[in-house]
Design goal:
The structure is a single chain. The chain is about 55% helix and about 5% strand. It has about 800 residues and is α+β, with helices and mostly antiparallel strands. β5 and β6 form a beta hairpin. Regulatory subunit of serine/threonine-protein phosphatase 4. Pfam families: EVH1_PP4R3, PP4R3. It comes from Lates japonicus (Japanese lates).
Length: about 800
């Protein structure tokens, strides 16, 4: 048998009853030795690989649909379809299939699908006719026809035979002719029977019948029949809606008559499925699967035809960005692009990729930048939907575009800043649009979906761009609503007890909660950039002002932001919190909450429980030194007593460590003090180690005597080893400001920020905190000499 090659797409039906595109290739029918029979072979047009090899089985039911589709099932749940580019190719392959099975190519189905139960049932019934015998198409026989159509729906084989009978006699058009007669005579009984007949014919689920029923000269009569549901007192007016209310708008005239007809047909069939037909029951859900497929393939065809018409799409985008276009016209253009993108969701991934690349080449992103900044709410909403399609499809494409913008435009009109401003200015009381935009921003700044290219620059470049050009726009409402009241006389510098413009407005509180959610995400995923921003802007102090808000959800958002920072266990952050005394607003909120057992209470206690369990020494010392008196009365949880216990254990451990090396204290002479301050310029590690061993005894004794003297001079009450209290009013200091430490502090090895009078210089293997202290040494901004090579 000679090969007949035709261009086709191969589809398989997935579990969700949606068609998956398996690729494009050329089909042939040829004898395959391994299976000893004629098979359909599809080879990919890209690389010649085999996309499909399917033996034409004598018992397989093949269906021809819409002149260019052949559909069949190879297993119980494995449906296949070949979509041909040309009708001629479909006809040739269909003839080959019918030839192998010994069937008439004029039929649209080669077998009657019979399950086992059907076979058993029909063995007892003598075969009377190949087709179901239909009553004459007359007014007086409508009830009989309706009963026949309704009765066959439960039997697959009788459904097939009825479909063949309806097709062979041109019965559908005769029935629709009777509908017009009944409507002219106002024959309600006949109209009710026609409703049952047309609904039953739709449930036969046959593409060949759909082709007739949904043709231009029949579809409105089909809709008319479906208006006369016997369960309704008055008929619905679906035709009036489709012809008068629903208007087909051509933003740019469509010259292709086939495309126009396909758009009209798809809209009307979708209306029948979604509006007119009742929601199918569990037992009927597969009755309309072919109708779903009919709509699906129509949408694919519409998108493909529009995409190929470059002149049409170029004109759309030209008018969309033209300043002279009036508002109503621009609204229609944006809605068209939105609908176009929605249709594209029916495309398979590789086709969708080509679709969005076409839009990108036509300038979709610059166009969105213009329309998203307009005052028209409808235009902005549609533009947001289009933007969401683009971000979901390819965040990298959007990022690449926005990073090129600063060279050409001002900060205010950058696309991401336009998006942020639209989020901030959302007029919806529930902030529906702002929530959607926040999700899109989150996707754009998520390092997880940034391409890991060979040079790995996308993450670094985009985050640098975002924090330089966009972050100040995002945080502006937060900073504005947590500003200090400079007229208040009782404020101390650096105090967190400020009189803020605390947002009592619910909508503002919701907006700040969204911004905080995004910033919390940044803390988790943008370690370096967000850390620098928080330190420079003293952002955590401003956020904690919101702990005073009357809206508990906002206070919880502020607390969550701090909890995420502490969860990183980063000593830079810990020093920043200690220097700024930033636990004060949290503890005030806990005390103000009183004995109420609510989410705020639990969340604050969980924060301190985390610090205790993770044994973050610097924070434990700060909390116990400054706030334990206020917290010791809280006994319904053991968290704060546990913190005190951790603090005492650490103090005892430090004392025990020091006792191993206690010597007669002597004052430090200048040479030894210089040794303690010596920089790491000497690269000879062995010399440094030997020098340390020789001089250790003398220098340490002098150091301890000087340390005791300094401690007695500055605060006699602290010479028993208690931690020094940090004054509450310490201003927030970034790590760069911590370089003013004394000589003695620089000389100390890396230890937690626990202010004790006696600190050991050497760690022994039995010290439990050796690993933690090593980590803190790496994180410390201070420059300390290594004591061993």
């Amino acid at each position: 048998m000679s090969d007949t090659r035709r261009r086709v797409k191969v589809y398989t039906l997935n579990e969700d009853r949606q068609w998956d595109d398996r690729g494009t290739g050329h089909v042939s029918s040829t004898f395959v030795e391994q299976v000893k029979g004629i098979s359909l072979l599809v080879r990919a047009e890209s690389d010649g690989s085999l996309l499909l090899e399917s033996k034409i089985s004598p018992n397989t039911a093949y269906q021809k649909q819409q002149d260019t589709l052949i559909v069949w099932s190879e297993a119980d749940n494995y449906d296949l379809a070949l979509s041909f580019q040309e009708k001629a190719g479909c006809d040739e392959i269909w003839e080959k299939i019918c030839q192998v099975q010994g069937k008439d190519p004029a039929l649209d189905i080669t077998q009657d699908p019979i399950d086992e139960s059907e076979e058993e049932r029909f063995e007892e019934i003598p075969e009377t006719s190949h087709l179901v015998e239909l009553p004459p198409c007359e007014l007086s026989r409508l009830e009989e026809i309706a009963d026949l159509v309704t009765s066959v729906l439960s039997s697959p084989i009788r459904r097939e035979k009825l479909a063949l009978a309806l097709m062979s006699e041109g019965y559908i058009k005769k029935l629709l002719g009777l509908f017009r007669v009944c409507e002219d005579l106002d024959n309600r009984e006949g109209l009710h029977h026609l409703y049952e007949i047309v609904r039953g014919v739709l449930f036969l689920n046959k593409a060949a019948l759909f082709e007739v029923m949904f043709s231009d000269d029949c579809i409105m009569d089909v809709v008319g029949c479906l208006e006369y549901d016997p369960a309704l007192v008055q008929p619905k007016r679906h035709r009036e809606f489709l012809t008068k209310t629903a208007k087909f708008k051509e933003v740019i005239p469509i010259t292709d008559s086939e495309l126009r007809q396909k758009i009209h047909q798809t809209y009307r069939v979708q209306y029948i499925q979604d509006i007119i037909l009742p929601t199918p029951s569990v037992f009927e859900e597969n009755f309309l699967s072919t109708l779903t497929s009919f709509i699906f393939f129509n949408k694919v065809e519409i998108v493909s035809m529009l995409q190929e018409d470059e002149k049409f799409l170029t004109e759309v985008f030209a008018q969309l960005t033209d300043e002279g276009t009036d508002d109503s016209k621009r609204r229609e253009l944006v809605n068209f692009v939105k609908e176009f993108c929605a249709f594209s969701q029916t495309l398979q991934p590789q086709n969708r990729d080509a679709f969005f690349k076409t839009l990108a080449n036509l300038g979709i992103l610059p166009a969105l930048e213009i329309v998203m900044g307009m005052d028209d709410l409808q235009v902005r909403a549609a533009a947001t939907d289009i933007f969401s399609y683009l971000v979901e499809f390819s965040p990298s494409m959007v990022r690449e575009f926005v990073m090129q913008e600063p060279q050409q435009t001002d900060d205010d009109v950058l696309l991401i800043n336009v998006v942020i401003k639209q989020m901030i200015c959302d007029s919806d009381p529930e902030l529906g649009g702002a929530v959607q935009l926040m999700g899109l921003l989150r996707t754009l700044i998520d390092p997880e979906n940034m391409l890991a290219s060979t040079n790995k620059t996308e993450k670094t470049e985009f985050l640098s761009f975002f924090y330089k050009y966009c972050m100040h726009v995002l945080t502006a409402p937060l900073l504005a609503n947590t500003a200090h009241d400079k007229n208040s006389k009782d404020l101390q510098e650096g105090s967190t007890k400020i009189n803020p413009v605390c947002p009592d407005n619910f909508q503002t509180a919701q907006l700040l909660a969204l911004i905080l959610e995004l910033l919390t995400f940044c803390v988790e995923h943008h370690t370096y950039h967000i850390k620098t921003y928080i330190m420079n802007k003293d952002l955590l102090r401003r956020v904690l002002v919101l702990m005073n808000s009357k809206h508990t959800f906002l206070a919880l958002c502020a607390l969550r932001f701090m909890r995420r920072i502490i969860g990183l266990k980063d000593e830079y952050y810990n020093r920043y919190i200690i220097k700024g005394n930033l636990f004060e607003p949290v503890i005030n909120a806990l005390l103000d909450n009183g004995t109420r057992y609510n989410l705020l209470n639990s969340a604050i206690i969980e924060l301190f429980e985390f610090i205790k369990v993770e044994d973050i020494k610097s924070l434990i010392a700060h909390i116990v030194d400054n706030f334990y008196k206020a917290l010791e009365s809280i006994e319904y949880v053991q968290t704060f007593k546990g913190l005190k216990g951790r603090y005492e254990q650490e103090k005892d451990r430090q004392s025990q460590r020091l006792n191993r090396y206690r010597r007669d204290a002597r004052s430090l002479d200048k040479d030894e003090e210089l040794w303690f301050n010596d920089d790491e310029d000497d690269d000879d590690g062995e010399t440094v180690e030997k020098r340390m061993e020789d001089d250790f005894s003398d220098s340490y004794g002098k150091y301890m005597e000087a340390k005791k003297g300094a401690a007695n001079g500055s605060n006699g009450a602290n010479n028993n080893g208690k931690a020094a209290v940090i004054p509450p009013s310490s201003p927030a200091v970034t790590p760069n400001n911590s370089s003013t430490s004394s000589v003695k502090t620089v000389a100390l090895p890396a230890t937690p920020v626990v202010k004790t009078a006696l600190v050991g210089l050497v760690d022994y293997p039995d010290d439990e905190d050796e690993e933690e202290e090593d980590e803190e040494e790496e994180q410390s901004p201070r420059k300390r000499p290594r004591l061993s090579s």
